[in-house]
Amino acid sequence: MARASLRNNILEAGQKVMFRKGYTGSGVREIMAEASAPQGSFTNHFRSKEAFALEVLDLYFDHVKALVSQALDDKSCSPRLRLRHYLDCITERLEKDDFARGCLIGDFSLEAASQSEMLRERLSAIFKEWRASFAASIAEAQAAGEIITTFAPDDLADFLLASWEGAILRMKVERTAEPLERFKRIAFATVFKEP
């Protein structure tokens, strides 16, 4: 009988540790302890810490894409309201972690993009893919007359993601939802306002 692979356990443990300690502060020893796996298992599954971090990032982005799809594909409400629902859903999830944990994509962008060209390139591709989902909903909202058409959907989606990530960083410092709520109040009263 073949032994079960520890690969997924190690990736999930790595995500937890990297949320707590960041890319640089996360050591293989701590990741393996979190996974309750022998130290040697890491090199059996991953070429390097950098390659491992890339897979952790992809695992996290798969989760984010599922949340985006759940909110933005909900045709029971208007496109503008779907955008708001996504932000509210993320706010609730961050509150459950007492606002101590943010977004791994944003965290890696701050810390790892300057240290690893491979991670920087992947983060760039992630932002483009992420932006496309929001741009499609924004375009739909503009076509329905729910959002002003002053700016192109791609530009508004970039603004949304960049500003939201900034609000999440402030949230982690202040340990309160106020930076997130402030972003939503201002964004939906200005660039995402109804015509």
TrEMBL record:
It comes from Dokdonella soli. The keyword Transcription applies. InterPro entries: Homeodomain-like_sf (IPR009057), HTH_TetR (IPR001647), Tet_transcr_reg_TetR-rel_C_sf (IPR036271), TetR_C (IPR011075). It comes from the Bacteria. The keyword Cell membrane does not apply. This is TetR/AcrR family transcriptional regulator. Pfam families: TetR_C_13, TetR_N. Residues 4-64 form the HTH tetR-type domain. Residues 27-46 bind DNA. Keywords: DNA-binding, Transcription, Transcription regulation.
